[in-house]
Amino acid sequence: MDTIMEQELRKLAEALRAKSISGLKELGEDIAEEAFLRNDPRLLDAVIISYAMAKLFEKPQTMRSPHWKAFFSELLEKIEACRKALKKEETYAFELLHSALEDIEAFAREAPRSQTTLVEKARVKAATQVYAHGASLEAASKFAGVAPQALASYVGLTKIPDKYETLSLKERLKMAEEIFSK
Questions:
Q1: DSSP 43
Q2: If you average pLDDT over residues 67-87, what whole number do you get?
């Protein structure tokens, strides 16, 4: 069914086991691009899981929670179950991924120094990556399910405009003319 997504979930599980904050963030960027290119918002749950878990790993007190081991083990099990379901072309695969995301949200609410908006922040980060890969602000916010104002506010704080150079309308027209005149 979806070998690329199955491979991305394998990478996600590996990054989680390694507790690799940078690996999770980088993987989130990759999956966000894939979600946008495929126009498949179901993949965003994997992006949000990547960003949310990277944030949890940044806070050592989180892993000292008495519920951490059970939570983390169940999270990995759901990701593995999703991978297996994708291999078998089962339709419930993405429901498992969404359930894992809900588990993160519940854990974050109960964790020490609770982060009730952790998943929402991760969702904005996912929308930012979709925006960075070419979607309009409105399309990216709809795709990720965040308020356009929240996305615009976050994008304004980032260096995305510096990282992804945009061309003026005049420059784009000139480039188009050059391409189509050949």
A1: G
A2: 95
Q: Specify the 3-state DSSP secondary structure of 55.
A: helix
The torsion angles phi and psi of 49, rounded to 5 degrees, stand at -60, -45
Residue 111: phi and psi, rounded to 5, are -70, 160
- Residue 168: which H helix or E strand, with range? none
Ordered by start, the domain boundaries in the chain are 3-180
Distance (Å, rounded) from C-alpha 170 to C-alpha 176? 10
The candidate with the shortest Cα–Cα distance to 19, out of 67, 66, 76, 74, is 76
The answer to whether 175 and 167 are in contact (CB under 8 A) is: yes
pLDDT tens readout for residues 124-152? 989 888 888 888 888 889 988 899 898 98
Cβ atoms of residues 68 and 165 within 8 Å = no
